[in-house]
Amino acid sequence: MLFDGIDDLVRILVVGVSAYAGLILLLRVTGKRTLSKMNAFDFVVTVALGSTLASALLSSEVTLSEAFLAFALLCGLQYAVTFASVRSGVIQRVVKAEPRLLYFRGTYLSRALRHERVTQEEILAAVRAQGKGELARVDAVVLETDGTFSVLSGAGDRPLDALSTVDRPAGEAGIGGPAS
User: Fold this and answer.
1) Does residue 129 share a domain with residue 83?
2) Among candidate residues 41, 68, 94, the one where a domain is terminated
């Protein structure tokens, strides 16, 4: 059916503008971190907010007040979890995954690749996406907490201090920071 009446269209316009404005206001109040996607939890909140907005727009069974409550609940939970994780190492370890070193100076770290379910081809794709044409120019590839790859280069033989908080094999030389 192409057109079912003007009432549904007016409802979508009113709810759409109101819900959008309310969500923007709530996001401004809760801060930039709410949509940062720095880890899987942040990503889930972002997707859930989008799904809630879509439900409010398209389902006449979802009232505007229910949508606002859902937005506030999701943003509030995200704020509370990130607030607590900044102040507690235990909560941070539960909520946030550690970045994982997958490739280091010419060596694919096969145990890390298997554990993270990443192939060598995916490492090569990440290297190409960074404009690198050869692995010899790459010092390290890290799977970040948000699922993206970081490709580090240019350190030569110097330690890579940026890897000090990255999960890596015990005894890996020249990385900087403690081994896991």
Assistant:
1) no
2) 94
